[in-house]
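Q: Here's a chain of 125 amino acids. Please give me its 3D structure as tokens.
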Amino acid sequence: MPCCVSLDPLQPHAEATYSGTLTAAELKAAAGEIMALMQKSQTTRLLADCTDIKGGHSVFDLYELADWIKAHAPQMREAVVLPALDLAADHVRFWETTCRNRGIAVRIFNDRDSALRWLHDARGG
């Protein structure tokens, strides 16, 4: 699968690293794996590294996934590192907007360090 999910041993967040193309089915499977890990580790914070993602899913798939996240993990806080490819970056921007419209705290960043700073900012901004 083009998604590797792990738990950061030093900071309380889950991490998903995406690469290549990600079909709608793989996107849903990755979301389920991420949510299971977050519940098990009792964290609501997620770093999604999309640097190497190429695409493979549609904005409709992202729209449906945002509805699923709202139903299953409305308190999630996700920092997303933008992909290098323009089309994939457009999908990530759509993801951020769609989630934020549902009250889910998602922000996009150009680099991992900025994403981690926001993810662990105690003010919640």
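Q: Can you summarize the key feature?
A: The mean pLDDT is 92.
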